[in-house]
Amino acid sequence: MNNETLCEQLSIWETSDQVIPHVLHHNGAISTGVEIAPLDIECYDESLINQLTLRLRSFLNALPENIKGQFYLKIDNDLDGMIEKHKALSITDNDFLKSIEKMRIERIESCAARGELFQVKIYFFLKSESERLKSNWFNFKGKKNFSIEVKNNYDERLQLLQQSITSIKTNLYSCGFKVKDMTKDKSFIVI
Question: What is the pTM for the complete model shown?
Answer without folding.
Answer: 0.71
